[in-house]
Write a structure and sequence with these properties.
This protein has 13 helices and 12 strands. The chain has about 325 residues and is of the alpha/beta class. Helix 4 links the parallel strand 4 and strand 5. Helix 1 runs parallel beside helix 13 and helix 5 packs across helix 7. It starts with 6 loop residues before the first strand and ends in a 14-residue tail after the last helix. The protein binds (2R)-2,3-dihydroxypropanoic acid.
């Protein structure tokens, strides 16, 4: 091992091809068993590595950076969302933080549409019924879902993934698009999507499908709460491929039980990998294990994106995907 090579710690296994690319230039420590690091493990890694490559399963809070023995200079996150990293605390220790934006946009939008279609068309229920040997054959009233084509989708958060979802919905399914976003959406994008920008209340009360694409911040925590769920139409379906804590899961279960909304498709959860028990029992809910970016191509691209950031850092170039704390 070349002791002059910067030490890079991966907290989880990456696609093998990317681990090999990284090992060409760096002294890479691989988490062979792919078991999430404990807090102690993260603390050790911050002390022993030059670069830490965490994922959404690693909580890097301020207390970890409040340690004089921290050696890490770069945190190259494997993922676009970085709500699990206290960027302010890291920056305060002169640690740069990068993420992997862009490369996962299309696959995450694909999965959003997968969830939307599965929920609307009751695909999860159908698959469970068939596998259980309970399908008795075609009949006119069997597992009737709700039509997707031509309906209205409300997108909360018009960033890359929100807009990629809007494009699929509009161009692929002839859906009317409503957007709720903190900042103004470019006029050409609005025109392309035939979209309408609106306030949250109006979106919730008019959309047939509400799809969440905002980051997790203190301001968006439980953005979808009991009151906002009750503002949705009784047939409306909520889709979440953003972050679990944007939705108050307990309020969601109540809304589904009381038929305040029609269904939900969830890829993310408040306390992953735990799933709120009440959700499991509800047939009109489709539950997926946080797999929005989960394709071979995208996970390799995410790894290569992190490698680019690490290489830039050690070449004294600004890493292309540096992140700053999201402003409230
Ligand atoms: C992302 O990239 O943010 C995914 O949700 C995994 O962290």
């Amino acid at each position: 091992m070349n002791s002059h090579r910067p030490r890079v710690v991966l907290t989880r296994r990456w696609p093998a091809a990317v681990e090999s690319v990284l090992a060409e230039d760096f002294d890479v420590s691989i988490n062979e068993h792919d078991i999430p690091f404990s807090e102690h493990g993260l603390r050790d890694a911050l002390r022993s590595a030059d670069v830490l490559c965490p994922t959404v399963t690693d909580s890097l809070d301020a207390s970890l950076f409040d340690d004089p023995a921290v050696r890490v200079k770069l945190i190259a996150n494997f993922g676009v969302g970085f709500n699990h990293i206290d960027v302010v605390a890291a920056t305060g220790r002169d640690i740069l933080v990068t993420n992997t934006p862009g490369v996962l946009t299309e696959c995450t939008a694909d999965l959003t549409m997968t969830l939307l279609l599965m929920t609307a068309r009751r695909a999860g229920e159908g698959e469970r019924e068939l596998r259980a040997g309970e399908w008795s054959g075609w009949r006119p009233t069997h597992l009737l879902g709700t039509r997707v084509t031509g309906k209205t989708i409300g997108i909360i958060g018009a960033g890359r993934i929100g807009l990629a979802t809007a494009r699929r919905a509009h161009h692929g399914f002839g859906m009317k698009v409503m957007l709720y976003n903190r900042s103004k959406v470019a006029a050409d994008v609005m025109a392309e999507l035939g979209a309408e920008c609106c306030d949250l209340e109006s979106l919730l009360s008019r959309a047939d499908f509400v799809s969440l694409h905002c980051p997790s911040t203190p301001e968006t925590r439980h953005l979808i709460n009991a009151e906002r769920l009750s503002a949705m139409q009784p047939h409306a379906i909520l889709i979440n491929t953003a972050r679990g804590d944007v939705v108050d899961e307990s309020a969601l279960v109540e809304a589904l039980k009381n038929r305040a909304i029609g269904g939900a498709g969830l890829d993310v959860f408040e306390r992953e990998p735990q799933v709120f028990r009440g959700l499991m029992a509800l047939p009109k809910v489709v539950l997926l294990p946080h797999m929005g970016s989960g394709t071979e191509e995208t996970r390799v691209a995410m790894g290569l994106c992190a490698v680019d950031n690490i290489r830039a850092f050690f070449a004294s170039r600004p890493p292309p995907d540096r992140v700053d704390a999201i402003q409230p």
